[in-house]
Structures are given as structure tokens and as C-alpha cells.
């Protein structure tokens, strides 16, 4: 009884809290722009601008680019060249977008929300706008098309700075960690996406398709997009609502029933059974067992069970005859009187 009272009180508290709080979708976990995220965004932006300035003024970073290029990593370890040719595909826009969109599409279908797909589309749109504009604006040539040794190769009509493969790997695989449903999954996916993006950037340096500074700027560009995504969450929510309204109007025109919103149903909790109660079940009285066995010999009609009847006190002693209580020798037990 005490356990049932405690469960009833807990359920009353839960339903009272639900009545006070506004109704929110249970599947949406919108990350907010916390102070820690703002600090990271500011530091990453400062790093981005520092890399651009170091390349523009042809600083030590440009000299390091040329030293790595003359080192020719693809000639130092030729045994891994074939593997890295396939690994770098993890940074290409088309294959990675298809793979991640398939997974997020399945999640959207299971959770009845468009937020995963809309978040992916928003991040890719921001990536194309920011990285594409930086590539065309700075016009840097790659290592294979360099003209003057030691120069920064800026403003010559190239599209290599920052690295698109690296930025795409950061955004495309990092979006899985951004949309993770649990903190543990977010930590694991963050580590996995960081390792993947790090490997893709270094692979482009190994293959000689990018300068080292291109990769550094690509990492910063992709991280800026991931850190800025919470600012676009209200826009994503409005777009999702507009798309669902459009779907409902289209269904109404075709005469199809519009799905009603999900209603929160209370969950009835049962009292927990202790191990002692499971090991020692209650025994039924012998009288009820005998009554149940005798039900087959009763006449058809409504009958009452033995437990529902009025208890009757038996007459006489219920003790069995003891061995010491014997009749005197020569006497016989009295016979019962019978009529007739």
C-alpha cells in the first residue's frame, strides 16, 4: 500500500508539471548559443583571419608551404598512395552528402521531423557561400600550378584557398555530432568526425593538391559553420513549420485526412514486486481448492464459491480419535438411531 501511494504521488507531480510547462516536441533537442560556443566561434574566427593575413603578407607560413611541397610526401611513402586515393573521397561534396543525407533522412522519417535534413541543407548552403566566395576572392593557385618559387600565388585566378575537401569533411561529418540525441553519442561522433576531417586534410597535402595553409584554413572554415548553426535554428524551425503546413494543405485538397498532433498519454506504473514476493507466492486455502475441484459435480446454474458463503462452525470435536481413548473390554460402541 505504501508503494502504491508513493507511485500515485509521483504521477500527480509529473502531470502537474506537464500542465504548467508548455508543450514541446520530445524529439527536438536544439543546441543553444552558449557563452562557451561564442568564445570558440570568436577564437576560430581570429585564427581564420590570422591564416589569411599570414598568406597575404608571404610570411613564414608560405615558406613552410613550399618546404612541404618540395619534400613531395607522395614520393616518400608510395605504399599508402592507393589507399589515400580512396580515403580522400570522404571529403568530396557529392558522395559524402548522399551518405549523410540518407542517414538523416531515415532519422527524419522515424522521428517525424524535417530538422535533420534542413540542418544539413543549411550547413551545405553556408559552406558553398562562404568557402566558395573565399576561393574566388583570393584566387590562389595550387602546388601543381605554382609559377614563382616562394610566392603566395594569390590573385592568379585559382580556387584552392581554403581547401574545399577539408571544410566539407568538417561540416558533413560534424553535422552528425551536432544532431546527436545523447551526450555520449555526441562525444563519440565529435571525435570520429574530427579524426576523419584531420585525415582528409593531411591526405590532400600528401597528394600535393593543396598547400598546408589551405588545409589549416579549411579546418577553420568548416568549424565556423558548425559553431554558427545555432543562430540559424529559428529559421530552420520556421521552414519546417511552413513545409508541414504546405503538406497539410496539399492533403486537404486531395481529400486525404490530415494527421492529428500526437497526444501525450499517461503511463501507468505498476508497483515493483520484491524478490521475496516472487520466490514465495501466496498459497490458496485448502477449502478453496476443494471447492474448485467440486465445481464439476454441481448442477447447472448460478453458484457461489466457497469463499463467498457464510462460514459454518462444525459441531463436535475436529480432533482425530487418540490411541489412549479406548472403550472398556466387553463393551460395544453405540449404534446410531435410524428411523423406520
Describe the protein's architecture and organization:
Residues 18-30, 280-301, 303-314 and 336-340 have low confidence and may be disordered. By secondary structure, this protein is mainly alpha-helical. The longest helix has 25 residues, at 183-207. Helix 2 packs antiparallel against helix 10 (212-228), helix 7 packs antiparallel against helix 10 and helix 9 (183-207) runs antiparallel to helix 10. Helices cover 58% and strands 0% of the residues. It is elongated and about 75 Å long. The chain has 13 helices and no strands. 21% of the residues are buried. It has helices spanning 2-20, 35-56, 60-71, 73-76, 81-87, 93-111, 115-138, 164-178, 183-207, 212-228, 233-253, 275-279, 286-293.
Count of strand segments: 0
The parts where pLDDT drops under 50 for at least 5 residues are 18-30, 280-301, 303-314, 336-340
Tell me about the largest β-sheet. Answer: none
Q: Helix content range of the residues, please?
A: 55-70%
How many separate helices? 13
Backbone structural class: mainly alpha
Helix and strand run: HHHHHHHHHHHHH
Distance between the termini: 61 Å
| Backbone CA Rg | 40 Å
What characteristic shape results from the CA principal axes?
A: elongated
- Beta content: under 5%
Mean pLDDT: 77
Give a nutshell description of this structure.
The protein has 13 helices and no strands. The protein is mostly helical.
Amino acid at each position: 500500500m505504501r508503494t502504491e501511494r508513493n507511485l500515485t504521488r509521483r504521477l500527480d507531480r509529473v502531470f502537474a508539471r506537464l500542465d504548467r510547462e508548455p508543450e514541446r516536441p520530445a524529439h527536438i533537442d536544439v543546441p543553444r548559443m552558449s557563452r562557451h560556443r561564442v568564445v570558440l566561434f570568436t577564437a576560430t574566427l581570429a585564427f581564420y583571419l590570422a591564416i589569411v593575413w599570414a598568406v597575404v603578407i608571404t610570411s613564414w607560413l608560405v615558406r613552410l608551404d613550399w618546404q612541404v611541397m618540395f619534400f613531395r610526401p607522395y614520393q616518400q611513402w608510395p605504399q599508402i598512395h592507393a589507399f589515400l586515393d580512396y580515403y580522400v573521397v570522404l571529403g568530396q561534396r557529392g558522395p559524402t552528402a548522399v551518405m549523410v543525407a540518407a542517414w538523416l533522412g531515415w532519422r527524419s522519417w522515424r522521428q517525424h521531423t524535417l530538422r535533420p535534413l534542413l540542418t544539413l541543407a543549411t550547413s551545405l548552403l553556408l559552406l558553398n557561400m562562404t568557402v566558395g566566395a573565399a576561393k574566388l576572392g583570393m584566387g590562389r593557385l595550387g602546388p601543381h600550378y605554382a609559377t614563382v618559387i616562394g610566392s603566395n600565388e594569390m590573385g592568379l585566378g585559382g580556387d584552392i584557398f581554403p581547401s574545399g575537401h577539408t571544410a566539407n569533411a568538417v561540416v558533413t561529418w560534424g553535422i552528425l555530432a551536432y544532431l546527436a540525441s545523447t551526450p555520449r553519442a555526441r562525444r563519440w561522433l565529435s571525435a570520429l568526425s574530427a579524426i576523419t576531417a584531420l585525415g582528409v586534410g593531411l591526405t590532400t597535402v600528401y597528394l600535393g593538391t593543396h598547400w598546408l595553409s589551405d588545409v589549416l584554413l579549411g579546418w577553420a572554415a568548416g568549424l565556423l559553420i558548425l559553431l554558427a548553426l545555432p543562430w540559424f535554428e529559428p529559421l530552420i524551425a520556421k521552414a519546417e513549420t511552413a513545409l508541414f503546413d504546405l503538406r497539410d494543405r496539399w492533403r486537404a485538397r486531395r481529400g486525404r485526412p490530415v494527421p492529428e498532433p500526437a497526444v501525450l498519454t499517461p503511463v501507468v506504473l505498476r508497483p515493483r514486486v520484491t524478490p521475496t514476493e516472487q520466490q514465495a507466492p501466496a498459497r490458496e486455502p485448502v477449502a478453496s481448492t476443494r471447492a474448485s475441484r467440486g465445481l464439476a459435480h454441481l448442477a447447472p446454474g448460478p453458484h457461489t464459491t466457497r469463499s463467498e458463503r457464510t462460514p459454518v462452525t462444525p459441531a463436535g470435536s475436529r480432533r482425530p480419535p487418540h490411541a489412549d481413548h479406548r472403550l472398556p473390554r466387553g463393551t460395544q460402541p453405540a449404534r446410531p438411531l435410524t428411523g423406520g
